[in-house]
Amino acid sequence: MTYRLEITSSTQPQDLIALRRNLAQSNVRRVPALLSLPRGDYGAFIRDAQGRIVGGAVGELDWGWLYVDLLWVAEPYRGRGYGSRLMQAMEYVAYSNGLPQVYLATTSFQALPFYQKLGYDVWAMLDDRPKGYAYYYLRRQHIKHPPLPDVELVKDPPKADVKAVRQGLIAYNEQFVHTVPHRIAIFARPPSGQAGDGQILAGLYGVVAWDWFDLQYLWVEEALRGHGVASQMLEMAKAQAARYGVRRIVTDTASFQALPFYQRHGFTTFGTLPDRPPGYISHFLKYDEGEANVRNY
Questions:
Q1: Alpha-carbon gap, residue 235 to 186, rounded angstroms
Q2: In terms of domains, do 22 and 132 share one?
Q3: pLDDT digit string (tens) for 231-266?
Q4: CA distance 124 to 134
Q5: Are residues 42 and 164 in the same domain?
Q6: Which domain range does residue 224 map to?
Q7: 186 and 150, same structural domain?
């Protein structure tokens, strides 16, 4: 099968949706039990008297865990226990869906002591993400009977509410480190002029931020596997990230996915999550060009 590779920093929404859908379908073919696991996006919010969001948490339930992607409380409202109440709401989501385990990430300038007080344990760490700070991965398992949420809690939260939380967190982070994220998307498509030349045959997507390239999705159609397409896309992504001055990559893969592929390309495991999904292990991987060159010397 012939194909052409294209790289872009302005991904079309339909392309990213197709990439995620194809990857999800591939995962289900390998592990059909994924279809029976609870999943969904959730948001917990605190509003002021005018209805404006002054605190929020956003999480994703998938693969047997709840991942808290965002947590933010506006400065005038800190120290009142709102952060704890928002986290209790996220834990309630996990527990009520029969999956009493939560994981998240934070940096050394954010909320590490706060999460540790709530019973979260550090299970992995990256140095210099961003430069001069540490990036911690934390988890809490075997959550028992969290209280009923006393904050607004919704499934599939409105995009505007999620955006308000995200912007609040970004504004806080900007006090410590300024960053301009750069998206990298690479797609394999049929040659131009052929029928279906807009179809995605393979794809890679990630974001350069905080001095690392966060590789989020990598998928290749069955008919193209074994022909070096994934390796080509990965090398193109490395080169593009290097143009932004970044030579380190972080990603994760499950034990039924692509661990040997990443290991062949110089990635090493710096942390693991058990039973993500149930019966398998999620490996959190890093690639550092300097470390890889030393190993290959």
A1: 11
A2: no
A3: 999 999 999 999 999 999 999 999 999 999 999 999
A4: 10
A5: yes
A6: 4-32+179-295
A7: no
Pair 73, 163 in one domain: yes
Same domain for 184 and 274, yes or no, is: yes
Residues 6+ apart with CB under 8 A from 159: none
> Encoding tokens for residue 123?
């299970």
- Domain count along the chain: 2
25 three-state secondary structure: helix
* 41 and 27 in a common domain: no
How far apart, in whole angstroms, are the C-alpha atoms of residue 51 and residue 177? Answer: 30
End-of-domain residue from the set 146, 173, 200: 173
Let me know whether 224 and 134 are in one domain.
no
* 152-191 confidence digits (pLDDT tens): 999 999 999 999 999 999 999 999 999 899 999 999 999 8
> How confident is the model over 66-82, as pLDDT tens digits?
999 999 999 999 999 99
Residue-wise burial string across 214-236, b where 16 or more C-beta atoms lie within 10 A, e elsewhere: bbbbbbbbeeeeeeebbebbbeb
CA distances for 61 relative to 49, 66, 129, 198, angstroms: 30, 4, 25, 32
3-state secondary structure of 32: helix
Average pLDDT over residues 129-150: 95
Residue 241: count other Cβ atoms within 10 Å of its Cβ: 22
164 with 126, same domain: the answer is yes
**Distance (Å, whole) CA 35 – CA 29:** 10
